[in-house]
Specification:
By secondary structure, the protein is an alpha+beta fold. It has helices at 11-63, 81-91; strands at residues 68-69, 74-75, 96-97, 100-104, 106-108, 121-126, 129-135, 146-152.
């Protein structure tokens, strides 16, 4: 009798490997989704902090004697909350909304209470007080998902 020399995998072995790869892929997709949503949330929080620091720092330039600030968008003499908001939106136009990267993140006016506001940094002026709000996670109507800072124009 001749001895048969099989040098391949059986169909069962191949099916087991395919099933294991499928399970690992399914788990990986769920984990990846969680990582990206966490990254978007942190990016929105970072945008909020960066905008607040930028506005405060640029206003400080005016207080230290500069004639313009915010890349020339803000004239220091006669600045108000409204002119500062307008100049800020212009100067920070390169910031992108992490939840909708085709849109600018920094906008003037509006609230951060609807779920469509997620990721946007909203600047509102009331007199010489600028309120900066960002919804960083849905549901935006929940106060714990919204960050708010104020900057006073002196």
């Amino acid at each position: 009798m001749k001895k048969k020399n099989n040098k391949g995998f059986t169909l069962i072995e191949l099916l087991v490997v395919v099933a294991i790869i499928g399970i690992l892929a399914a788990v990986g997709v769920v984990a990846y989704s969680g990582y990206t949503s966490g990254a978007k949330k942190q990016a929105a929080k970072s945008n909020q902090a960066a905008v607040t620091k930028y506005v405060a720092a640029e206003l400080q330039k005016c207080n230290l004697g500069e004639t313009t600030a915010m890349s020339g968008s803000l004239t220091c003499s006669g600045k108000t909350g409204a002119t500062t908001v307008t100049a800020s939106v212009t100067a920070l136009a390169d910031f992108k909304n992490p939840y909708s990267t085709s849109n600018a993140a920094v906008t003037s006016g509006g609230a951060s209470t609807a779920d469509t506001d997620v990721g946007y940094v909203r600047l509102n002026a009331s007199g010489n007080t600028i309120t900066i709000t960002t919804c960083f996670a849905t549901a935006c109507s929940t106060a714990t998902n919204v960050a708010t800072n104020t900057v006073v124009v002196e």
